[in-house]
Amino acid sequence: MQLIKIFWERREFFLVCLLEHVRISLTAIVCAGVLGILLGIFISGRKKAAAVILGIINVIYTVPSISLLGFLIPFTGIGNKTAVIALTVYGLLPIVRNTYTGLTNVDAGILEVAEGLGSDGRQVLLRIRFPLALPVIISGFRNMVVMIIAMGGIASFIGAGGLGAAIYRGITTYNMTLTAAGSLLIALLALLSDWLLSKAEKAVNRRYGIG
Amino acid sequence: MDKVIEIRNCSAGYGENEVLNHVSLTVERGEFLVMIGPSGCGKTTLLKMINGLVAPVEGEVRVKGERLDQCNLVAMRRKIGYAVQGAKLFPHMTVEENICYVIGLERKMTREEKRALTCKMLDMVQLPPELAARFPRQLSGGQQQRVGIARAMAAEPDLLLMDEPFGAVDEITRKGLQEELLALQKKTGITIVFITHDIGEAFLLGSRILIMKDGGILQEGTKEELMAHPKDAFVKRLLCV
Q1: How do residues A157-195 score in pLDDT, each as one tens digit?
Q2: Are A117 and B94 an interchain contact pair (Cβ–Cβ within 8 Å)?
Q3: Do A110 and B101 touch (CB under 8 A)?
Q4: Whole-prediction pTM
Q5: Across the interface, which of A107, A113, A119 has its CB nearest the CB of B105?
Q6: B131-154: b or e for each residue (b if 16 or more CB lie within 10 Å)?
Q7: Helix (H, G, I), strand (E, B) or coil at B31
C-alpha cells in the first residue's frame, strides 16, 4: 500500500529517475556490447592474447563495484560519465567471454569445409562463424544487460542519476519505502529487459532451425 | 589428355610427425580416381593438398596448370567441388542457402536464380524440391549427404574432391548414391578424386585406384591391373585375393 502511495505521490521524480537509469544503462550496454564483441572476435584467433585479455577482464571483475567507481573519480570526475565507464567495464566480462567461447566452439570441420569451398577469411567469420556463435553471444548479452541495469543502482553513490538516487535518498532519510520503491523498479526493469531479450534469442534460434 | 592435378614430390606433416612422404601423383581430366588405405595413411592429407587446405612443406602442387602457392587460392577453390563425410552442411542455413553458398560468395543471386539453381541441384541428387526450405537437422543422414554433394556441384566445378562422402550413410542409401554419382560423372565428364576405405566401393567407382600406406602410394592401377599383379601381401589382403 505504502509503495503504491509513494509511486503515485512522487511519480515525476520516479519517472525522471527511471528515464535517467535507462539512459545510463543503455549507453553502457551499447558501449560494452560493441567493444565486447569486437574484443571477443579479436581474441578468438589469438590464443595468447585471449589468455591475457580474459585474465585482465577477470581481475577487473573481482574489484568491488563501489571501489571501481571510487578509483575512477580522480580521472573522470563524478557523475554520469564515470558511471557509464564503470558499468561498461563490468559489462565486458560476460560478453567478451561468451563471444570468445561461441566463436572458438564452432565445429572445426564445418569451418574447414567453408574454407575449402572458397570462402575468404572475412566470409568464414561473417557467414559461418559469427552466426553459429550467435546463440552463445546473445546469452552473454542477456547476462550483461541484467547486470548493468542492476549495478546501475550503485552509480548514484558517485553523483550519477538513475533509480539509485531514489535508493540513496531513502537510505539517507530513513525512508525505507523510498528505498524499496527504487529497488523494485530496478528489478522490474532488469526482468523486463531480460524477458524481451529472451524473445529475441528465441527468434534467432528459430531462424537457425534450432529452437 | 590434359592434366588436372599434378602433385610433384610432395611431403606434408603436422609439426614433427610426417603424414606424407615425397608423394607424386597426376590426375587426367575425366578420371575417377579412388584413394584407399588404412586410417592415418595420409589420404585425406593428400586430398586437402589439392584444394590447398594443407600446404606441402616440400614439392609443388599444380591444379589446372596453376601452382597453388602462386595462384589466388580462394578463387581456385570456388572452382573445385568439395564434399566430406557427414556432409558438414552449414546448420544455420536452409538447404537452399547451403546449395547457393559457393555462388553467393562471388556475387549476389536473385531469389528466382536461387530457386532455379536449388531445384536443378536437388533434382540432380534426386531429392524432392520441397526440401529447399528445410534446415539440415530436419534431414536424414542420406539426404544431408546428397545436399552436401549438391552444394559441392552447384558452381559447376570441373573437379570434385570427395572425402569418404558415403561413410556415414546406411548400406541401401549408399548403393543409390554410388550409382547416382557414377551416372553424374558420365553425364558431366567431371574429374573426381574420391576417398574410401571400402574396397567394394573403390572397385565400383574408380577408373583408377590408388592404394596408400604409411604416407606414400603403394600401388596404383585399374581394378584389373591390381587384381592381376598385386604388389605385396598388404595389397593382396586389401583386395581379398
Answers
A1: 888 888 998 999 999 999 999 999 999 999 999 999 999
A2: no
A3: no
A4: 0.86
A5: A119
A6: bbebbbeebeebbbbbbbbbbbbb
A7: coil
